[in-house]
Write a structure and sequence with these properties.
223 residues, alpha/beta, BirA Bifunctional Protein, domain 2, eight-stranded mixed β-sheet, three-stranded mixed β-sheet, 6 helices, 11 strands, globular
Length: 223
Amino acid sequence: MSESVEVWIDPLARGGVESMAIDEWLLETSRTTRIRCYRWEPGWGSFGYFVADREAAALLGTKRRIRRWTGGGVVDHDHGWCYTLVAPAGSGLAHAGAGESFRRIHGALAAALEGAGFRIETAPPCQPVRGGDCFQQPVCHDLVDHAGSKVAGAGQRRTRIGLLHQGAVRVATAELGAELAASLSSSSRLVTIAPDAGRVAAIAARRYGRNGWNEGRRAAKSF
């Protein structure tokens, strides 16, 4: 990948509604590929767009939960590390198909993890699944350790303005975001971003904070 990649280490632990709205705001506004590395407030979980809320509730128990705009299974965010990558339309990652973009991003993530001393492999091809505990079900392009246990997974959504890729990693180092960007591009740098609070609140009100967003996909609308 030759395009520049910017890395934002979000300094705040955030709740699910705000965090998902910030990711969508980044997709709306970014003119270059950006990676957001972030933490969740304690007691949160998330679940993929195609997962039923009742299934997520059964797996997450009393934790607060939020439906992601991307795919994938159910993730307990009291464990591990999360990142979001947004790539504007016309960029290599946005232009690539789903399989190729996953291959590139997870290949770079594997290189970053291996550089930190972890033994990482790519999960073998298998039938896609919807739902369930994300880290109990490695699928094609996921990363696993030498014993076959899932280490990293992600979900994607494409719109007319670009690619949204949301990933979760069970193991991490403090520098993993910068190392991921460096593995993706020879031109990467750390940046500080101040989200537009008004726009983030508007996105939250339109989508993630709406009554019924968690309960059904009918709450989702395209740009």
